[in-house]
What does this fold into?
Amino acid sequence: MVKLRLKRCGRKQRAVYRIVAIDARSRREGRDLRKVGFYDPIKNQTYSNVPAILYFLEKGAQPTGTVHDISKKAEVFTELRLNQTKFKFNQ
It folds into this structure.
């Protein structure tokens, strides 16, 4: 199973996180499948590669709680619903 979760980067006391698609059995710092975003909690900055996140969500990836909240703020799930309705109408 693939998960969308945070991977810690940065130095001591100055953590920044990458949002990555990674196998659920891998450790936090393990090899990721793809980097799909960035989150800096200190500066409160976020970058999300929305097409990549949508790709993994459509393939069945499960976001962790924090990644879910970050994606909700970036309105990724509204775009996912729009893509699903377009897909249903095309069939």
Notes: The longest helix spans residues 76-90.
